[in-house]
Structure formats: C-alpha cells, structure tokens
Amino acid sequence: MANPMNPLIVQSDKSVLLEVDNPRYEDARDSLARFAELVKSPEYVHTYRVSPLSLWNAAAIGITAREVIDSLEEFAKYPIPSNVSREIVEYMSRFGQITLFSEGEDMLLQFEDEDLATEMAQNSKVMEYVIEEVDERTFLIEPIQRGFIKHLLLQLGHPVEDLAGYAVGEALPFELRETTIEGRPFGLRGYQKESVDTFHAGGGVRGGSGVVVLPCGAGKTMVGIGVMHKLQTSTIILCPNVVAVRQWIKELIDKTTLTADQIGEYTGAEKTVRPVTVATYQILTWRRSRDDEFEHFGIFDERNWGLIIYDEVHLLPAPVFRVTAAIQATRRLGLTATLVREDGREEDVFSLIGPKRFDMPWKLLENQGWIATAICYEIRIDLPDKLRRKYAIAEDRKKYRLAAENPIKLKLIKELVEYHTEDNILIIGMYLDQLKIIAEEIGAPLITGKTHNDERQELYDAFREGREKILVVSKVANFALDLPDANVAIQVSGTFGSRQEEAQRLGRILRPKTDGSFARFYSIITRDSRDMDFAAKRQLFLTEQGYQYVIASDDEEIWRRNPESFF
C-alpha cells in the first residue's frame, strides 16, 4: 500500500517516477521492468512509462493486470490514480479478446464478443483479409494473410493471440554434445533451459513464436541451439553480418552432432542451402535496383523449414518483416539483448515475430556469475578553444561530429591505455578518420567495414589468444562478436543516442572473467555539446539494466579508483 517511504510516484498519464536514492530502488526497478519502459534516467529520479505494448508483452508471458497493479501499489508513495488502474485492466484485457486458430484447412479469426466483431466488420481494411463471416463472432481468412491481419489489428489497438499452430517442417535429428569438439564440458545453463522450455511450451500452439531477451554474453546462441534441438527440424538462421554467420556455424559444429555438410552459409561470399542454413540480413535484402524484387527471398521456399531464428531481432530490416508476415506457419524465434528498435517498429516484432517470451534481468545474471560485473564511466572533457566558434555556428548533425571527434579525446585514450596495460581493450567509435588517428597513435590494429572478413577473423583470433591486447573497431564490432577476454571498452563516438548500440557495446565486455575482475566501460564525452545530449539517451539503457553509472571530469582520474568504491 502507499507509503511515503516508498520509491515510486505513479502519475495519471501512466508515467512512473522512481527515486534512485531509496532502499527499495532495485526491487522496484526489477518489478517495473516486467511491464514498463524506461524513458529518462537522470541521476536521482528515473521515469518509466506504462504503454499498451509493454502491457501486452507482460500479458503474453502470463502477467495479469492484478499483478501489475499490485506491484505498483507495493512500491508507491501515494495512491495510484484510478484512471491508471482502469487503463491497465482495459489494455491487458484486450490480449486474448481476438484469437486466430485452425480448423482443418480453415484459418479462423474469432472475437470474444459480438460487439468487437461488429466493430471490426465495419473496418474496410480488416475486411480486405476476410473471405466470409462464419458467424457473429468468427471470420474466415486466407492462411497466407495470417501475419498481415495480426499486424493490422495491432495497429488498431487489438493484439491477436495466435493459436493457429505451425507446420512441422522437414525432420532434422541431432543431439547436443556433452563435451564439445574442443574438449570442454557442455550443457545448457538453467536460465537457458528455462527460456527454451518457455518458448517451446511443450510443442503446443501457445509457444513456437516470440522473442527471448538476454544480455550479450549470456548465450543467446545456445538458446537458439536448444530450441533447434527441441524441434529437430530444418532451420534457417538470419544474422546481422558474416562474422555472426560463421560463429553460428562454428558453435553448431562444436556443440551438436550436426556435421559441416548439413550446414550451409548463405552470404555474399557463398550461397549454399542445406538443412541448417545461416544467412545475413544484408544478402536477403539485396536487390539490383530499388524497383527490382528481393531475389534472395526465394531461400524461404527452398526447403520445408520448421524454424526461423532471427538473431539480433532488433536489427531486422523492414523488407524482412514483409516476408515474415507471409510465413507465419513457420515457428519463429527472435533473439536480442534489447527490444528497443531505433526505427520504433517494436510493434512489428510483437505481431510478426511474436511477443516477448522470456526476459532475464542483466544484474541477476551478473549476481549469479554468468556475466561479468561491470561499471560504466562517463568522462567529460572540454572542447578546445579553437573549435568552440566552429561548433557554435555548425548545423546540428555537424555539431555532433565536431564534439565526437574532439582531439582531446586522444590524450585521454592514451592515459586509459597506459593504465590498463594488463587488460584487453576495445576502442570503439563510428567515425573512420578519428579511428585511424587513434589506431596510428597507440599502435593498434584497426577493424572497419572495409576490412576483409578473413583479416578481421585473424585479428579477432589474435586478440582472443593474447597476441593483440588492443583493437580499434568501428560499428562492425557492435554485433555478434565473441571476444570473451575483452574486459575494457572505450567508446569515443556512437550513433546519435542509440540505446540498442549501447547494449551491444557493453555486451562486448560482459563475458565472465576467469579472475572474477570487473569489466569497465568508458564513454568519453565532450561537455556541453550534442555529444553529451546523445550520451544521456544512451545512458537510458545502462541505467535500465541496473548498471552503476559514474560521471566525472577527466582531471578526476576516476579510473584509478577501486571500482568497488562506487558500489
């Protein structure tokens, strides 16, 4: 019940204020994360929003409106506005009001009550997908339109619970190894098994589609392999880049009884379709011109696929959503560290890939030792006097680049590298001219999008084996990069406040450390500039996940302090 000592203030616009300096902060934060979205995270009060989509994702994993309201009441300072409680009940009750199910060869859309069916029957866009009205509450639709009508109805504020089931797919028997080819014991971790079982749902119609959210370093690939093992069916795996494709292939061969001739690579370099085929988003969305067809979409018809895995689903390109809408009879698993999409198309993921099925708080995995304990530093520096006037008269976009490429950052990078001589360091940025200068000045290799895949792999291997202690990397290192010994990341520039990018970059250093040491994530920011504005947006993700976020000036040399002093 309401208590002035509690950390939450629930407002009538469904925003929720959370006091950071409160003994119950962490418990309240973890509870909110199940059904609310973080909007702002300044030092003392964080703002969350309870949205229809956040409530429908909660409903899809079995959280009830009563549980949401009880959670808010447990941590609230003051009584919850009555309209908020009513809207939580209203929105969450919509999940399940419309269901899709199969009856023989027929695909049926059924409404909980006649009034809702009548309302939808008056909508011409809905009726474009309807063959006939079977009765007052049931419409017959074409199976091929399954995804399209789900997408439309969600846009109209009515999520569809899809119980229409899935095609079996071509059989692909294989086993998980107890010992990897490399000779290490292997088995799914408890939370990985739980996520696999939750997605699979006993093979019934209530499972089989949706998203598993786990931090980088927590083994999302192992979850995908676990789902493949459950289903024993031919699988197509879609990845953000070639490095990720080859990592999937390596892991499948190392940890399962699948053989190399059962796994195909489908990229710009090689196009082989086999019972397990691993492709890039880039090759799927390639076409000769803007007016031509996406000719590689034909891969979806090459075999009788029983499962599609969307790795880093928050990066799924818009054209792949379109083809996904047409293949709803195939089981679909999305894997990601964050449901946030920079294009705002989270609703498309919900309606076409499926709702969130499993989410594990980052800090809980850290506490259990599955990912490294990390501390995040934002170090603020001044813009040199000679650049201030140029910055003042520049356009907004150029303002950010000027601040991001602040030459004083190089001096600080050198100090950090000198301090971390025994560590394995990634220096990450987005501007190639800046990264070239940094690489030359500190004598480290540079990896960019222009670096050939074979050369990239050689440098990554050298880093893993300790022959290289520092890599300077562009945005190519944001995604699907497995460098388990990296324990320091220095971010010098990023994509305009991208929270998903922050998730990926932090994830580069979250693999557990053999000596139990802290991972450190430094962001070097130009004070009073667009650089600082965008850093505040990226900070949202780190704060949402519960990470300690320390802000200081460069002259404070906070990196020399014991990280434990900040906890």
What does this structure look like?
- With about 575 residues, the chain is α/β, with parallel strands linked by helices.
- The chain has 4 domains: about 10-95, no CATH class; about 100-165, Alpha-Beta Plaits (2-Layer Sandwich), CATH 3.30.70; about 190-360, 3-Layer(aba) Sandwich (Rossmann fold); about 365-565, P-loop containing nucleotide triphosphate hydrolases (Rossmann fold, 3-Layer(aba) Sandwich), CATH 3.40.50.
- The protein contains 21 helices and 23 strands.
- The strands form 4 sheets. A 7-stranded parallel sheet has the order 12-13-11-14-15-10-16, sandwiched between helices. It has a 7-stranded parallel sheet with strand order 19-20-18-21-22-17-23, with helices on both faces. Strands 7-8-6-5-9 form a 5-stranded mixed sheet.
- The longest helix has 15 residues, at about 530-545.
- It is globular.
- It starts with 7 loop residues before the first strand and ends in a 14-residue tail after the last strand.
Throw out a few tags for this protein.
Alpha-Beta Plaits, alpha/beta, seven-stranded parallel beta sheet, single chain, Rossmann fold, 567 residues, 36% helix
Give the helix/strand layout.
Blueprint: E1 8-10, E2 15-19, H1 25-32, E3 37-40, E4 45-49, H2 52-60, H3 65-75, H4 82-94, E5 98-103, E6 106-111, H5 114-121, H6 124-127, E7 130-135, E8 138-141, H7 146-155, E9 160-163, H8 190-200, E10 209-213, H9 220-231, E11 235-239, H10 242-255, E12 263-266, E13 276-280, H11 281-284, E14 307-311, H12 318-325, E15 331-336, H13 346-353, E16 356-359, H14 362-367, E17 374-381, H15 385-393, H16 396-404, H17 408-419, E18 425-428, H18 432-442, E19 446-447, H19 453-464, E20 470-473, E21 488-491, H20 499-507, E22 519-526, H21 530-544, E23 548-553
Parallel strand pairs: 5-9, 10-15, 10-16, 11-13, 11-14, 12-13, 14-15, 17-22, 17-23, 18-20, 18-21, 19-20, 21-22
Antiparallel strand pairs: 1-2, 2-4, 3-4, 5-6, 6-8, 7-8
